[in-house]
Design goal:
By secondary structure, the protein is α+β, with helices and mostly antiparallel strands. The protein contains 16 helices and 35 strands. It has two domains: 24-377, YVTN repeat-like/Quinoprotein amine dehydrogenase (Methylamine Dehydrogenase, Chain H); 416-722, MetI-like (MetI-like fold, Orthogonal Bundle).
Length: 724
C-alpha cells in the first residue's frame, strides 16, 4: 500500500504541473485614465504598466502616470533633427502639422508624418531605479526627436509605415512611404554610439521603387528587405530587396473582402491581414520545390461580420489583439490557431492600441482617455493541434511535426510536437524488441526445456547480472564504441543476420545426426559449447568478409549505395545501434519472466506427453508453449514498458535528433530522452516546462497501463497453475 501511495502521489504531482496548460486567458481592466486632451494620439507603455508615453496631434510629447492621470513630464515637439535630401548633413528644422500618428508595436517609438514629406519619430526611454525603501521608480523621457525626409519636394505623403529597433550600441529607424507621384521612397537611419567619446554618429540610406497605383496601407519588414503594399482591393504588392535594390513588385492574388488592417507579428515573418468582413488572415513566405520564395496564405481566423479596425501584435510571441468596427475585441494566436479571448473594447473611439513590452497588458487610447487592460495569457502557444497535429510554422513549405523548443532569437517560434517524440519512442521500442523478444523468449525456452540442469544453475544468475548492468554504461559503449564500428562493418552485420540462424539450424541438425552412443559419452550440455564455437567462427567469417561483400553487393560503399538506390541517409548513431544496445538491456527482463512461465508448466503435463511417445520438441510446441503463452505475453509487455521508459541508452546511443522517420539508419528522440535534455533549461512554470511534464504523464500512462496488463495476466497464470 505504501508503494501504491507513493506512485499515486507522483502521478498527482506530475498532473498538477500539467493542469495549468488548460488555463484560459483572462483580460481584466487595470486603469482608466483621463488624458485631458481632445486629439488623436499614439502611445507606448512601460514594461510595468505604470506609465504611458503619448504623442498628441497638437505636437506634444507627454508621460502620464496611469494610476491617476498625473502628467510626469511634457515636451513640446516643435523641432526635430533631420538630414535633408538637397544638402546632406544634420540640422534642426521646425516640426508642425502632425498627422497619421502611430506607435511602432513593441518598439517604444512614436511616429507621425509632418505634411511636408517627412516622418517624425520620438523614441521613449524608460529609466527604472529603486529608492532607499526598495520601491521601483520609473521615469520616461524622450532623448531626441528624429525626422526622415522622404520627399525632396516636401509634398504630403501617402500610405507609409516605419520600424525602429534599438541595441546597446545604437538604434535604427526604417521608413517607407508612397509619394505623390506613386513611387515608393525607403529611408533608413542608423545611429551608432561611440562608447569611448559618448558621441552619436548617424548614417542615412535612401532607395526608391517604381511607380504603382495608390496604396491604402504599407507594411515594412524589420530589416527593410520586404515591403508589402495594399492597394485597397483584393491583392497584395510585394517588393523584395535583392542585389541592393528593390525590383518590380510581385502581385499576389488575395481573394476575399477588402483589406482594412495589416501588420507584421513578432519576428517579422508572419503578416496579419484584417479584412472588411471581420476575417483575419496569416500570410508568410515559404520556399517552393523549385527553390523560389512565395508569399502564401496559411490560415484564417473567422470573426464577427464587422471590418477589422486595428491589429496590435504582442512583442513576445505570435499573439495579437484584433479590434473591430462594432467594438468587438479579440486576442488570437497565430501558431496554435487559438482564439484566446473575446470581449468588448472599453473605448469605442480608440485611436491607438499598444501591447505592453512583456505581453501582459494592452493600452488603448482615445481622444480623451487611456484604458489599460491586464492580460493573463500564460500558455498561448499550447493547443491540441500544436502538440499532437501538424502545424504550419513560419518558413516551412507545409504543415509538419517539429520539436524545436528554443532558437537563437527572442522572436523564435516554439515548435513542440509531442507526436514526433511519441513516434520516436515507439521507433526505439520497436527496434529494441525486435532484438530482445526472439533472443529472450527462445533463450528462456531452451534454458527451461532443453538445457542440462547443471548449466541452468549458471545461466540464470548470469542473465540476472546482465540486468544489473547500468544502462548508462550500455549507452556509453553503444555510442562511442559500437556505433563507429557498426558503420564500418554494417555489411558484416547483414551477413551475420542471414548466416547465424542458418548456422544454428545446420549445427543442430548435425548434432542430432550423431550416433546416440557418441553423444551419450559426452558431458551434458556440451552441445552449447559446440553451438557457441560454430556461431563464433561464422560471425568471425562474416566480419572478415565485410569488405569483399561490400564491394560485391554495395559497390564498395554501403552508405553511398543506400543514399543512391534507396534515398536513405546513414547516421552513425541510428535506430539499429539503439536496438542492439537497448535490446541487450531488455533481454534479461524478457528472459527471466519467460523462463519462469515455461518452468511453471506442470511437470505432470510434460511427463505425460513424453510418456505417450511425443518427442521433446513436440511436447514443447503443443504443451509447453500454449500453456505458458500468457506468461510469455506478460514478459513481452514488461519488456515493452522497460523499453518505452529507457532514457540513457537512447540519449547516448542515438543522435537524439527529433525527426519523423521510421528508417533504421536515422536517429530519433524519445519522450524520456527529451525530458532529460530539456528539463534542466526549461523556465520553471513556463510552457516548455509544463509540456515536458505532459510528456512525463504520457510516459507514466503508457508504462503503467502496459505493466498493469502484464501483471494481471501474470497473476492469473500463477493462480491457474497453482491449483493444478
Amino acid at each position: 500500500m505504501s508503494v501504491i501511495a507513493v506512485i499515486v502521489g507522483m502521478l498527482v504531482f506530475i498532473c498538477g504541473e500539467v493542469v495549468p496548460l488548460a488555463r484560459s486567458t483572462s483580460v481584466t481592466p487595470l486603469y482608466d485614465t483621463t488624458r485631458g486632451r481632445k486629439a488623436p494620439a499614439a502611445l507606448a507603455v512601460d514594461e510595468y504598466l505604470g506609465f504611458a508615453a503619448l504623442l498628441d496631434a497638437g505636437a506634444g510629447l507627454r508621460v502620464v502616470r496611469l494610476a491617476d492621470g498625473h502628467v510626469e513630464s511634457e515636451t513640446p515637439v516643435d523641432r526635430a533633427i533631420v538630414e535633408t535630401l538637397a544638402d546632406p548633413g544634420l540640422e534642426e528644422r521646425p516640426v508642425g502639422g502632425l498627422s497619421g500618428l502611430r506607435s511602432l508595436d513593441g518598439q517604444d517609438v512614436l511616429t507621425a508624418q509632418t505634411g511636408d514629406g517627412r516622418v517624425v519619430a520620438a523614441r521613449v526611454l524608460w529609466d527604472v531605479e529603486f529608492d532607499a525603501h526598495g520601491q521601483r521608480v520609473v521615469t520616461g523621457s524622450f532623448p531626441e526627436v528624429l525626422a526622415l525626409e522622404l520627399d525632396p519636394d516636401r509634398r504630403p505623403l501617402g500610405a507609409w509605415d516605419a520600424h525602429g529597433s534599438r541595441s546597446d550600441d545604437g538604434s535604427s529607424l526604417r521608413v517607407v512611404a508612397q509619394l505623390a507621384d506613386g513611387s515608393l521612397s525607403i529611408a533608413s537611419q542608423r545611429t551608432e554610439i561611440n562608447e569611448i567619446f559618448g558621441t552619436a554618429e548617424r548614417t542615412v540610406e535612401r532607395e526608391t521603387a517604381g511607380v504603382v497605383e495608390r496604396l491604402e496601407r504599407i507594411v515594412i519588414a524589420p530589416d527593410a528587405r520586404d515591403v508589402y503594399g495594399f492597394p485597397g482591393g483584393r491583392s497584395v504588392l510585394w517588393w523584395t530587396r535583392r542585389a541592393g535594390a528593390y525590383g518590380e513588385p510581385r502581385v499576389i492574388a488575395a481573394p476575399g473582402a477588402a483589406v482594412t488592417a495589416a501588420t507584421l507579428l513578432a519576428g517579422g515573418s508572419s503578416l496579419a491581414v484584417g479584412r472588411s468582413d471581420g476575417v483575419v488572415e496569416i500570410w508568410f513566405q515559404v520556399r517552393e520545390d523549385d527553390d523560389s520564395i512565395d508569399l502564401r496564405h496559411v490560415r484564417s481566423f473567422p470573426g464577427p461580420a464587422s471590418p477589422v479596425r486595428h491589429i496590435a501584435p504582442s512583442p513576445r510571441d505570435r499573439s495579437f489583439f484584433v479590434a473591430h468596427e462594432n467594438g468587438a475585441l479579440r486576442l488570437l494566436h497565430s501558431t496554435s490557431e487559438r482564439v484566446l479571448w473575446e470581449g468588448e473594447t472599453p473605448l469605442s473611439d480608440a485611436t491607438a492600441y499598444c501591447f505592453a513590452p512583456k505581453g501582459d497588458g494592452l493600452a488603448i487610447a482615445s481622444a480623451e482617455k487611456v484604458v489599460t487592460l491586464l492580460v493573463d495569457n500564460p500558455h498561448p502557444e499550447v493547443s491540441w493541434s500544436s502538440l499532437f497535429a501538424g502545424v504550419w510554422y513560419e518558413d516551412n513549405p507545409t504543415p509538419e511535426l517539429v520539436w524545436q523548443s528554443d532558437g537563437g532569437s527572442d522572436h523564435f517560434e516554439p515548435k513542440t510536437s509531442l507526436s514526433l517524440l511519441f513516434i520516436g519512442t515507439l521507433k526505439g521500442t520497436f527496434y529494441s524488441l525486435v532484438v530482445a523478444i526472439p533472443l529472450g523468449v527462445l533463450g528462456a525456452l531452451y534454458t527451461s526445456q532443453f538445457l542440462a540442469n547443471g548449466l541452468q544453475r549458471f545461466i540464470k544468475p548470469a542473465v540476472e547480472v546482465m540486468a544489473a548492468l547500468p544502462t548508462v554504461i550500455l549507452g556509453f559503449i553503444a555510442g562511442l564504441w559500437l556505433a563507429p564500428r557498426l558503420q564500418n562493418h554494417f555489411p558484416a552485420l547483414i551477413l551475420g543476420v542471414l548466416a547465424l540462424p542458418v548456422t544454428l539450424a545446420v549445427s543442430g541438425a548435425l548434432w542430432d545426426r550423431l550416433p546416440r552412443r557418441w553423444r551419450g559419452r559426452l558431458p551434458d550440455g556440451i552441445e552449447v559449447l559446440v553451438f557457441t564455437v560454430a556461431l563464433g567462427l561464422v560471425f568471425g567469417a562474416c566480419v572478415a568478409a565485410n569488405d569483399p561483400f561490400e564491394s560485391l553487393a554495395f559497390s564498395g560503399d554501403f552508405s553511398a549505395w543506400l543514399q543512391t538506390n534507396l534515398e536513405l541517409g546513414y547516421d552513425q548513431r541510428n535506430a539499429i545501434v539503439v536496438g542492439l544496445a537497448m535490446g541487450f538491456a531488455v533481454i534479461p527482463i524478457v528472459f527471466s519472466i519467460s523462463e519462469e512461465a515455461f518452468s511453471s508448466v506442470p511437470r505432470a503435463l510434460v511427463s505425460a506427453s513424453l510418456a505417450l511417445g511425443a518427442t521433446r520438441w513436440q511436447t514443447v510446441r503443443r504443451i509447453v508453449l500454449p500453456t505458458a503463452s500468457p506468461g510469455v505475453f506478460a514478459a513481452v509487455m514488461v519488456g515493452f514498458g522497460r523499453a518505452v521508459g529507457e532514457t540513457m541508452v537512447v540519449l547516448m546511443a542515438t543522435g537524439n535528433t527529433p525527426i519523423l522517420d521510421w528508417s533504421p539508419f536515422n536517429g530519433f528522440r524519445t519522450l524520456s530522452a527529451n525530458i532529460a535534455v530539456e528539463i534542466p533549461e526549461a523556465p520553471h512554470g513556463g510552457s516548455l516546462y509544463r509540456i515536458l511534464f505532459l510528456s512525463a504523464v504520457m510516459l507514466f500512462a503508457i508504462t503503467f497501463l502496459v505493466n498493469t496488463l502484464a501483471e494481471v495476466v501474470r497473476s492469473r497464470l500463477r493462480k491457474r497453475f497453482g491449483q493444478l
